[in-house]
Amino acid sequence: MKQVDEQNNAKHSILPFGADGEGPRPTVLQVLPALVQGGVERTAVDISGAVAQAGGRAIVVSAGGPMVHEITRVHGEHITLPVDSKNPFVMYANVARLATIIEENNVDIVHARSRAPAWSAWAAARRAGVHLVTTFHGTYTLGGNLKRRYNAIMIRGQRVIANSSFIAGHIRKNYGIQAARLRIIHRGVDLERFDAQKVLAQRVVALADDWRLADGLPVVMLPGRLTRWKGQTIFIKAIAALVAMGRKDIRALLVGSDQGRRDYRSELDQLISDNGLNEIVRIVENCNDMPAAYMLTDVVVSASTDPEAFGRVVPEAQALGRPVIATDHGGARETVLEGETGWLVPPGDVEALATAIDCVLNLDEGERTALAQRAVGNVRKHFSKAAMCAKTLEVYDEVMLMTPDKNG
User: Of 36, 43, 372, 380, whose CB count within 10 A is highest?
Assistant: First the structure.
């Protein structure tokens, strides 16, 4: 009993992230499948940096990946576990492993960012008697009752974060969460990195040379991993429609890895060839300098056929003042002000996308400048990384004032 009292007193002595004065801040353990690439991983890195900068201790548990070094770069710590596995036996074994990590590192808050690791994290947090926060990063396929129950682990947090108003609406509609437990925190753009004034011309020129882009030709780009719902086939058909209209003075880029989807990559290559676009459309597997990629682009497209939970491409491009076209659903409705900072087109509508691209390419310099100013201002006001991190730390402070939920 004395040991439990001492532990409780130690918890009460922990200061909020926003507090002045000296004293320990919470230790936060984020759990996600792997650190490969994508919005979930980038957010985990950003929050690790914010926790460390605020005086807390940031630990990330994942199956590893190329972004592990980014966790350590922002003064976080990484522990490798097979939390990417959906094997029930591995997930069960991960409960004890995570509970041990929680206890040995005096973790105060566990933050789960994906379903399979969330099941293990939830059980481990209950076992260790610590707080749980979850983030809904996507809609997740609903399916039948069993799939819905599997997804519902993401509402077990004492606070549940939705990364857009669209996702918050999806959670309320399908999972019946109490509004008091739900927080909307939009994905944040790193405004230091995505700042047109800080992207040196040499970087843009080097990338254009590497991608063999001819001078003077407008560039249209669709960034995103090569998967069908990202709309690459719609994009290629829209470019074909533009060419059929006589617009051959363009270059189009699909920037993203197929991540092993070789059949889909082959289908895209065939579609490009069948439409006679081999000289116009190019697939670029990887890009390590997306700010420079956006800067060499005249139009940035998000053609997703399914709703994006948030969709970081659109606000990143807007932060650099680039014209954007996105499909009219999901998070894009929150990040694009139609006709002011970009354009929205119906999902899957090849003709509408082609018309919108042609419209953007016909903007004069004054129109592009005015659009850029509005777009940059909107992102800086509503979608900054700093705001995302501050709001997340506020959620951590909220749960630290609560009693850990041991009943789940």
Answer: 43
Beta bridge partners of 302: 326
Going along the chain from its start, the domains and CATH numbers come out as 2-188+386-400 (3.40.50.2000), 196-382 (3.40.50.2000)
pLDDT digits (tens, 9 = 90+) for 389-405: 999 999 999 999 999 87
Determine contact, residues 46/188, Cβ cutoff 8 Å.
yes
Q: Counting runs of H as helices and runs of E as strands, what totals does the chain give?
A: 16, 13
pLDDT tens per residue, range 304-326: 999 999 999 999 999 999 999 99
Can you spell out the DSSP letters for 237-276? HHHHHHHHTT--S-EEEEES--TT-HHHHHHHHHHHHHTT
> Edge-to-edge, what's the strand order for the sheet holding 109-112?
77-80, 57-62, 27-31, 109-112, 131-136, 159-162, 182-184
Structure tokens at 350: 């090849």
Residue among 326, 404, 407, 406 at smallest CA distance from 109: 404
Strand ranges inside 299-384, DSSP E: 299-302, 324-327, 343-345
